[in-house]
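To whoever is covering the structure queue this week,

Two jobs came back overnight. Logging them here so there's a record in the thread.

Job A:
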Amino acid sequence: MNKIESINLIYRNPEVRGGRPCLVGTGLRVIDIVMAMQFGNRSPEQMAEDYQVSLAKVHAALAFYYENKEEIDEDIREDIRIGLELAQEGWGRPEKSIFPLGLTPDQLDALVNLITRAEEEADDDQPLTRAMKRQMVEDFVAGKAIAKAAESIG
């Protein structure tokens, strides 16, 4: 008979970080880990060191993400939307942001969807690497910059 084992490294508390899933013993959200990987090109080892958590917790956050991808992707979109609104109001330090600046919320949503589709279409033998995702972001931003320049030329 099989016994299912569980690693309890993720928790939710409505009074902590808006009830979003966090790493046990911290207020670090799962989306913080995912966004650092997707947009910040950080490895699990780098994130463990940067956030001062165990590598096991980083991997648990990533496993949780892949098990709850649709929900977490929606949380990421909402975080980006709120961040953009705050930046447009002058809050924060957008010059230090890991996100591509100058994109509208719709363009950021399109970028997240583009990366998500590429991940889904990638072969299991050759998954999308962080470098490939970073290149997609750079190409997307460059394409928007070119389109904006073309608009201004007329």
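Job B:
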Amino acid sequence: MSNVLITGATRGIGRALFDGYAARGDAVTGTYRGDKPDGDGWVPLDVADAQAFEGLRDAYPQDAVDLLVCNAGVYLDKGESLPDGYPAEMWAQSFAVNVTGVFLTVQSLLPKLQAARAPKIAIISSQMASSELAPGGAYIYRASKAAALNLGRNLASDLAGMGIAVGIYHPGWVQTDMGGGSAAITPAQSRDGLMARFDALGMDSTGEFLTYDGTPHPY
């Protein structure tokens, strides 16, 4: 049994992962904003609020984190227009969640990760993070997910000496509120692939950027 913490776990891919680890018998904890979900295993956290991290380590009920999944994310700039869209506050809010929130989560829980036998961090990025695949548009989301990818790669380097493996993942185009109903795969398909990737992550593969099905993703 592993101790798993998932940010942004109330819906979409995060909720699918929460349910998957619970069904497997792991000690899974999810973070939420707003109303507390039914059942056990939840701690409050708004990753865009720096002060909210002050109590995260104490609120987490386990002594160690075996797997930290940084899943919380927003895609606010759908439909924005280059000539008159993409307001500055949208950039700030998106980076606060998609980038700073990832860093502060890792930083806050570093002692709990160090207490684990073979700790892992999984950062949910996106194929839209790729600089090689750059079709334009969605500038804020693409830039923030590219920053999350860069953050993960650098964390992998710095945390290697602590024995903490870091992986960065594209979860697929998933049928969620963010991905839309016409997306290619279901949350369950994404979850099953991601859980397999997280299981396989280790120090020999730290810093990897993979699609949910195990395909190496272009940077």
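Note for Job B: Residues 65 and 110 are 9 Å apart (CA to CA).

Please reply-all if you pick these up so we don't duplicate work.
Q.
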